[in-house]
Amino acid sequence: MIVQGLCERFRRADFMRELRLVLTWVGLGLVLMAGLGGCAPGVPAKPENPAPPVSPALHRGFISMSPNSTETVFALGQQSGLVAVGKFDDYPPETEKLPRVGGAIDPDLERITQLRPGLILTSGAVPKVVQYGATHEVAVVNVAMDNLDGIAEGIKRIGSLLQCDAKAEALLQRMTEQRHAVETAVAGQARPKVFLVTGRMSHDLNTLSTVGGPSFLSEIVTLAGGYNIYADSSQAYFEASKETVVKEAPAVVLEFHCGETLSDAEREAYVRDWEVLSTVPAVQEHRVHIITESHAMRPGPRVYEVARLLARLLHPGVEALQ
Fold it and tell me: Quick one: CA dihedral 290, 17, 238, 142, positive or negative?
């Protein structure tokens, strides 16, 4: 059990390093787009690397190196051409049968060469893979899905690349129906102030990673009938201070431990950490929630399932959400 616990901690640390790197690339992209000024708020920017005409090469198979693009491929029913996935891709369970080719930090270029794909899907810039694609004449497409508009555009883009546009439209229609169901359920409810914690590496509150308005997590909190206390921040991902959290006085704290297997005792320990901020309403009212669903921070086809989960936590008395 001790070895298993240590493995889980190291795997978590490895994942968080990669997640932070990807989110840093995304954040830099958002800053650059804001500086260029040509995009109105809420309107998806044109991708910086337009999808190349890869259709003739699809018979060679393709690789998806991020959990959200892999999940999208399966949601579109196009997994028959998928020859490998990234090391953190865990849904659906069928991904376990596929070869792994590393992640954003450590792509396995030798394995990729052996598989000879005609297309590689990434989420965020992966310089080593981009260089590999240029050298080996393999199309590498960055499908960014950091906000709700970007998720929809990303699904359309993958549908176009895999020649299944109609299936992409059908998937988006189902997702729209899920979104409307959540919006209808929380309509008219008071909006509690919410603090989102996307990571902390120890049992203190000195490093609180959170999200601002540009992040899809902030958007789905709004959709779920809450108000992110950092919604006005222009940064998508950053660290918050305890002092600011106390000042903002959130009514609910949502702390993400995605993909972690936590015992009841471990959950309670994370919640007890917040007792040092005894003046925060969320602490006083016992509304600190630990979220472990692996897809809760994943921008992809199940994003409105996550919105419904958050809505249940924010509005436990709404029968339509149960």
Answer: negative
**What DSSP string runs through 107-118?**
--HHHHHHH--S
Query: What is the pLDDT, as a whole number, of residue 125?
Result: 81
Considering only residues 31 and 151, tell me which one the structure prediction assigns the higher pLDDT: 151
Query: Same domain, yes or no, for 244 and 316?
Result: yes
- Strand pairing class (252-256; 193-197): parallel
Helix (H) or strand (E) holding 97: none
Are residues 268 and 146 both part of a single domain?
no
Q: Over the stretch 190-237, which tens digit does the pLDDT of each residue have? A: 999 999 999 998 888 998 999 999 999 999 999 999 999 999 999 999
- Residue 21 in this model has a pLDDT that exceeds 90: no
Examine the domain organization and report whether 280 and 230 are in the same domain. Answer: yes
Task: Of 36, 32, 17, give the one whose Cα is nearest residue 88.
Answer: 17
Distance CA 67, CA 128 (A): 18
Please state, in angstroms and rounded to a whole number, the distance separating the CA atoms of residues 322 and 315. Answer: 10
Cis peptide before 281 (omega within 30 of 0): no
Please give the pLDDT value at position 50.
Answer: 53
What's the rounded Cα separation, in Å, for the pair 24 and 1?
Answer: 34
C-alpha span between 200 and 260 (Å, rounded) = 13
Domain extent at residue 104: 49-163
Degrees, nearest 5: CA angle 38-214-225: 130
Please provide residue 46's backbone torsions phi and psi, each rounded to the nearest 5 degrees: -65, 135
Q: Is pTM, for the whole model, over 0.85?
A: no
